[in-house]
Amino acid sequence: MSVQDVLKKYAVTASGKGGVPIIFAHGLGCDQAMWKDVAPAFETSNQVILFDLIGFGNSDHSCFSYERYQSLSDYADDCIELVENLCSEPVMFVGHSVSAMIGVLAARKRPELFRQLVLIGPSPCYLNDQEYQGGFSAADIEGLIEAMRSNYLGWVKGIAPVIMGNPERPDLTAALEDSFCRTDPEVAQHFAALTFWSDNRSDLASVTTPALIIQCSDDFIAPQSVGRYVAAQMPNAQFVELEVTGHCPHVSHPADVIEEIRCYAGLPVPHG
């Protein structure tokens, strides 16, 4: 596949002035627009790459099929394809929510392609399992998927405020609702099932790529204990907790996320 084909397939937007490439990967029901308040902050020091997962945003939807995408590992292969075709050196991968785990799986498969991982609100398993508390029972997940199937727009209206978690800022919730509403409901349901039924806990220990886990102090989707679990299981991980609410700090509190990434990567604060 040519570079131009890859750019079109994933609706890639590239900017920046060189330096270590930073790839930003969005979560369920979203697209690259969710990084609009974070990604530009790195354009003076790094190559910045935004893209849409297949089936979302402006990606080439003809590339999507239910047979091709049967697990999060299949999306990890797409991330590897991106890096191989667009980057001449190992990258920093910044993934939100499910894309955090997609990045983990990609780094596990091809560690030489990834310099660092920044995992925002990661969860290797959403299902409660004895001592491990992922935040959801099997009945919770079954109900969530069924709600998406039976009344997608109603589900969006109900879940968007929970995910965003900043009720005093309804504009943020509205932006997330709009993003979900731009997504094909059947694709979103399929991806949600892959996400919420996944269990990648056993993959964490074998990922040696340095990683920063960014966790919100009050997150309904990925509880604090889950973020700490991820950091404890990965051999080269650091954990940082933001004293903010919600599951999308890159949208609700972008300055905090920018600061943590800069500090972790040792990047300068631009002047002027």
UniProtKB/TrEMBL annotation:
It comes from the Bacteria. The keyword Hydrolase applies. One of its GO terms (molecular function) is hydrolase activity. InterPro entries: AB_hydrolase_1, AB_hydrolase_fold. Residues 22-259 form the AB hydrolase-1 domain. It holds the Pfam family Abhydrolase_6. Keywords: Hydrolase. Belongs to the AB hydrolase superfamily. This is Alpha/beta hydrolase.
